[in-house]
Amino acid sequence: xxxxxxxxxxxxxxxxxxxxxxxxxxxxxxxxxxxxxxxxxxxxxxxxxxxxxxxxxxxxxxxxxxxxxxxxxxxxxxxxxxxxxxxxxxxxxxxxxxxxxxxxxxxxxxxxxxxxxxxxxxxxxxxxxxxxxxxxxxxxxxxxxxxxxxxxxxxxxxxxxx
Amino acid sequence: xxxxxxxxxxxxxxxxxxxxxxxxxxxxxxxxxxxxxxxxxxxxxxxxxxxxxxxxxxxxxxxxxxxxxxxxxxxxxxxxxxxxxxxxxxxxxxxxxxxxxxxxxxxxxxxxxxxxxxxxxxxxxxxxxxxxxxxxxxxxxxxxxxxxxxxxxxxxxxxxxx
Lengths: 162, 162
Fold this sequence. Notes:
Distance between the termini of chain A: 31 Å
Largest interface: A-B, 30 and 31 residues
Low-confidence stretches of chain A: 130-136
CATH class of chain A: Alpha Beta
Number of strands of chain A: 5
Largest sheet of chain A: 5 strands, parallel
Mean pLDDT of chain A: 82
Oligomer: homodimer
Helix content of chain A: 25-40%
């Protein structure tokens, strides 16, 4: 009986509705009253493209595309975290929540973060597409489910009445 | 806040250590004190082979291979359920546990059972083999994770000290 054992639960969040569903599911099911579990919101930014300050014709680019991209990214991160907040704010008083931002190939960054944090669970949303798309999509959750050592929870967007 | 909502949690069990790990994980994490959750132990027997009462040389086979196989299967089911019992008996007083036995291709039977029972979660163990075997094994959990609509939890055998 280890009711009071603290668990570290990583929930991978991104711009998708599915990841918010995963967050909501986690709060409903993995944070019973009185638990000391910690929820880590993990967001992974895509790798930065390499920019040259010269454009294709050899002219110096006015403005700073890297700075513009970083600003856009910052806003994207804030937007995802704000959406997450609307999901968890009803629970917030009881739950330890941390934010982590990574950069790179999402599936690899998630696996590495789970290992580095020695997380006890990884929760991810996934798509529920038809037969043809299934082979291509949902690949991040599949990749992580195979590679991380801790239990992986794959949450699909549920019908509204469920 | 839906603390008292009853959830139906299917745990697929078989002869493997991994499935017992999945059962143990479920009890630790999905059955907080006071929950009304129901745990369904699902065991799938393989399809029965078609037997003829004549052997290859045309002689009538003495004894009844189907009866012998059924007896063997019965013992196998009882053995898996007995192992499950040693895992859940410490929790039993608080948890509703049901046993379900299916027959057929495990991955298909599990998916159908989850749908028919309108389960809220499916928990499965999986193997953690090296790179080469990974592509072949763990296929039941992968198949089910793609097809069932409810959240799927994939549990790997943890190191002893975890």
